[in-house]
């Protein structure tokens, strides 16, 4: 969740806003480069762990024994790093959100190391939370030394916007996420655009940097949506609501899973056991339920009729359990990308069960529902669902379906805990 932030710029004049452009662009580019560097390093290590090493041992890379061994070893490795590095790679990840106050900069090296290990090892978490935390910490540390009078909230907003823009390949995602907290503060006419001016520039810089260097793509190769019908209205509401309920099941299980792992007391033991559970889940759900989920989502979308409704449902449930396990046993990572895979699998399950439901609509609605429950970010959920299918024809139905979905999740516990283990509301 995006933490509350004070007013960044109060109806700033054009000159004051213009002064934000250079630092915003620098922060956005730097945020994207850090994300890109960590992602490339994790991909190289992933190739070694899941291709080179099993081939050298004449073992199937995605065989059940190898998945169990690799996830357990990843948990052990991450636990040992967290136990030994300075700052223990930051606070308990179950207590952190997407945008939080800056960590001390000397914690960041350990945080990035365990993030690379988790991404490469197949843990069901994405890079967004730790990379955003790292960029916020570094930007805040440098910004306070270069311009000590600048409000801390500005540096936090620039770094988070740059990272989110790079993650999604567009500044719109950053603007939508930050606007939910910024607009809530009220203000003078024009404040809604004055306040995110700098973050929007940072998000644009991060998105362009990532797009030019890595060419990310989030669209799925689904059959085009044929256009709305009366039956689609009911389908969209039912699928979104069902997906939101699955997401809420994960949210309600979150504190119990966290309490169970914390009962083991030692981080190495917690993460080793968590890795073992993830390995067993991977053996049960198949290799598509491993890793952060971005590449796996594309594989599912490329063949929407390649699995039965039961197989899609099993993937959605296994990935949900894997997400809760990974996020509560101590692995550092984000929840958005794994939640997207849950939604895609659930949407394709709905299409496989009822062929009359278009796959693009089913996927978009399921992703919307799961993200509403897990992130509580309405704009982000709508944006991600629409971008995945790349068809504006689903937008009216998504807007309608978001209403019952939001009624189901609003006021419920969040997938984030207080320090005492109780959920945020």
Quick take:
This protein is an all-alpha fold. The protein has helices at 14-18, 21-56, 64-84, 108-121, 128-146, 152-168, 171-182, 191-194, 197-214, 230-262, 267-285, 294-302, 309-328, 336-353, 359-375, 378-389, 395-409. Pfam families: Voltage_CLC.
How would you describe this structure to a colleague?
It is found in: Membrane. Its main location: membrane. It holds the Pfam family Voltage_CLC. With 425 residues, the protein is mainly alpha-helical. It contains 17 helices and no strands. It starts with 13 loop residues before the first helix and ends in a 16-residue tail after the last helix. The longest helix has 36 residues, at 21-56.
Structural Rg: 21 Å
Strand content range = under 5%
Helix content: 55-70%
> Mind summarizing the main beta sheet?
none
Average pLDDT, all residues? 85
- Whole-number total of structural domains: 2
Derived from helix and strand composition plus strand pairing, the structural class reads mainly alpha
Which spans have pLDDT < 50 for at least 5 consecutive residues? 1-11, 186-190
* Large-scale geometry: globular
| Strand segment tally | 0
- N-end to C-end Cα span: 11 Å
Question: What is the helix tally?
Answer: 17
Transmembrane segments: 17-42, 62-86, 107-125, 152-177, 234-256, 268-290, 310-329, 336-354, 360-375, 382-407
Organism: Streptomyces sp. 900116325
Protein name: Ion channel protein
Pfam families: Voltage_CLC (PF00654)
């Amino acid at each position: 969740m995006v933490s509350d932030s004070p007013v960044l710029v109060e109806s700033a004049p054009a000159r004051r806003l213009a002064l934000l452009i250079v630092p915003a662009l620098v922060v956005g580019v730097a945020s994207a480069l850090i994300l890109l560097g960590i992602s490339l390093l994790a991909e190289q290590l992933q190739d070694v762990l899941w291709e080179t090493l099993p081939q050298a041992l004449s073992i199937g890379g995605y065989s059940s024994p190898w998945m169990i061994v690799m996830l357990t070893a990843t948990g052990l490795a991450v636990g040992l790093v967290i136990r030994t590095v300075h700052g223990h790679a930051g606070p308990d990840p179950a207590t952190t959100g997407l945008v939080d106050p800056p960590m001390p900069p000397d914690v960041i090296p350990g945080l990035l190391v365990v993030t690379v290990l988790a991404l490469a090892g197949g843990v069901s978490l994405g890079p967004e939370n730790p990379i955003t935390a790292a960029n916020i910490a570094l930007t805040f540390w440098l910004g306070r030394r270069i311009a000590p009078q600048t409000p801390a909230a500005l540096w936090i907003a620039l770094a988070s916007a740059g990272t989110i823009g790079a993650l999604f390949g567009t500044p719109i995602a950053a603007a939508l996420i930050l606007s939910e907290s910024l607009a809530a503060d009220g203000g003078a006419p024009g404040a809604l655009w004055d306040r995110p001016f700098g973050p929007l520039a940072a998000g644009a810089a991060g998105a362009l940097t990532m797009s030019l260097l890595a060419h990310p793509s989030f669209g799925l190769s689904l059959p085009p949506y044929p256009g709305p019908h009366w039956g689609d209205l009911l389908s969209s509401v039912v699928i979104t609501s069902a997906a939101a309920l699955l997401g809420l099941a994960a949210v309600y299980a979150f504190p119990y899973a966290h309490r169970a792992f914390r009962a083991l007391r030692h981080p190495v033991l917690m993460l080793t056991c968590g890795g073992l559970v993830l390995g067993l889940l991977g053996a049960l759900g198949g290799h598509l339920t491993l890793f952060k989920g971005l590449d796996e989502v594309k594989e599912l979308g490329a063949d929407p009729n390649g699995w039965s409704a039961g197989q899609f449902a099993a993937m959605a449930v296994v990935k949900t359990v894997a997400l809760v396990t990974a996020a509560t046993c101590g692995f550092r990572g984000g929840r958005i990308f794994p939640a997207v895979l849950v939604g895609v699998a659930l949407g394709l399950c709905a299409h496989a069960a009822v062929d009359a439901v278009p796959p693009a609509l089913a996927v978009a609605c399921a992703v919307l529902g799961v993200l509403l429950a897990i992130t509580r970010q309405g704009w982000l959920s709508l944006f991600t669902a629409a971008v995945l299918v790349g068809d504006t024809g689903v937008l009216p139905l998504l807007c309608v379906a978001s209403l019952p979905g939001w009624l189901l999740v609003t006021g419920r516990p969040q997938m984030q805990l207080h320090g005492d283990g109780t959920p945020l509301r």
